């Protein structure tokens, strides 16, 4: 029975970014005390409050599940996101839509195998930002490097960030092409004639990061 493979990947470590913006100083002038002291605030991700849900689709349906977030940091300056990173523990991948114990275990074992995420060999998946564009109102376009199974590719996705005092909540919807990470099982792009057994190349990750200022 074909199982959802397009899932995530995410395993590893990650989320580190330093985006302190230097103050602008006129030639011949000394930087003011306020300008020289300005720097980004680092928010440490709370792995218990944060979560990642994945959805993988195939011709005949879809499967859903979760993956634990292992670590993460976000950097904010004047309530504006400047950068960040997070990592996933791929060994924690779970299937939530199959209630039958036997069927659940079968799909889960397949997802953890070499056909998909090879979690014992690659226990971590990571994402590190390379650029963040503010769209206003807490909305952003985020670009960064996503690493799954030791393979790194750039991804861009929309995100929202809310800062309330020392607490930050970030939400993102990430679409991942699994074949770029050598996860080709059941892909029509590589195997012809598989008909309704095909698994779509893209899988979706819905990420919620809850963090506190350090």
Automatic annotation (TrEMBL):
SUPFAM superfamilies: YceI-like (SSF101874). Signal peptide: none annotated. It comes from the Bacteria. Pfam families: YceI (PF04264). Residues 42-212 form the Lipid/polyisoprenoid-binding YceI-like domain. PANTHER family: PROTEIN YCEI. This is Polyisoprenoid-binding protein YceI.
């Amino acid at each position: 029975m074909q199982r959802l493979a397009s899932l995530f990947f995410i395993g590893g470590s990650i989320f580190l970014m330093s985006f302190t913006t230097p103050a602008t100083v006129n030639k011949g002038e000394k930087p003011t005390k306020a300008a020289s002291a300005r720097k980004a605030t680092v928010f440490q991700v709370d792995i218990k409050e944060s979560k990642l849900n994945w959805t993988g689709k195939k011709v005949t349906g879809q499967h859903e599940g979760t993956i634990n977030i292992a670590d993460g940091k976000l950097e904010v300056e004047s309530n504006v996101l400047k950068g960040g990173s997070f990592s996933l523990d791929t060994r924690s991948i779970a299937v939530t839509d199959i209630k039958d114990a036997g069927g659940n275990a079968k799909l889960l074992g397949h997802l953890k195998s070499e056909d998909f995420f090879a979690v014992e060999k690659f226990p971590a998946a990571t994402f590190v930002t390379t650029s963040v564009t503010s769209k206003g109102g807490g909305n952003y376009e985020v670009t960064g490097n996503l690493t799954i199974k030791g393979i790194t590719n750039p991804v861009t996705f929309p995100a929202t960030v809310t800062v309330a005092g020392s607490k930050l909540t970030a939400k993102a919807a990430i679409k991942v092409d699994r074949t770029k990470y050598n996860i080709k099982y059941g892909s029509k792009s590589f195997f012809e004639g598989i008909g309704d057994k095909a698994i779509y190349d893209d899988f979706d990750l819905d990420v919620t990061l809850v963090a506190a200022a350090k």
